[in-house]
């Protein structure tokens, strides 16, 4: 790498933190973290440019939608469990397990 500072050059402390992760986590995980950091920096720079140039107002609604679309949150544990349950429910029903949908009702009652 050259000594020129690129707009999304990570701080030295962050580079050292990533380097320390190589041994316990493996290089692929570290590279994924680095790529995610760079992508996050680029998204924020794009958002700032759009605001600065007047493409989006300061109300933040479009910015919120852009962030949500480009950085979706992973499914919650509840959502994952319900998806898994949907897959195995027919098998459970055929075997007479949980005829009253107790598991589904319990999962659906959990707040996200």
List the defining traits of the structure above:
112 residues; mainly alpha; 2 domains; 0% strand
Break the fold down into its secondary structure elements and pairings:
Blueprint: H1 12-25, H2 27-52, H3 61-70, H4 77-94, H5 102-109
Helix pairs in contact: 1-2, 4-5
Structure explained in plain terms:
By secondary structure, the chain is mainly alpha-helical. The chain has 2 domains: 59 residues; 33 residues, no CATH class. It contains 5 helices and no strands. Helix 1 packs antiparallel against helix 2 and helix 4 runs antiparallel to helix 5. It is flat. 0% of the residues are buried. The mean pLDDT is 85.
The computed structural class is mainly alpha
What's the shape?
flat
* Uncertain segments: none
Helix content: 55-70%
Rounded radius of gyration (Å)? 22 Å
**Would you tell me the overall average pLDDT?**
85
Sheet with the most strands, sense and barrel status: none
What's the helix-strand series? HHHHH
Q: Give the count of structural domains.
A: 2
How many β-strand runs? 0
Query: Total number of helical segments?
Result: 5
* Span of the ends, CA to CA: 44 Å
Question: In what range is the share of β-strand residues?
Answer: under 5%
Condensed summary:
The protein has helices at 12-25, 27-52, 61-70, 77-94, 102-109. The chain has 112 residues and is mainly alpha-helical.
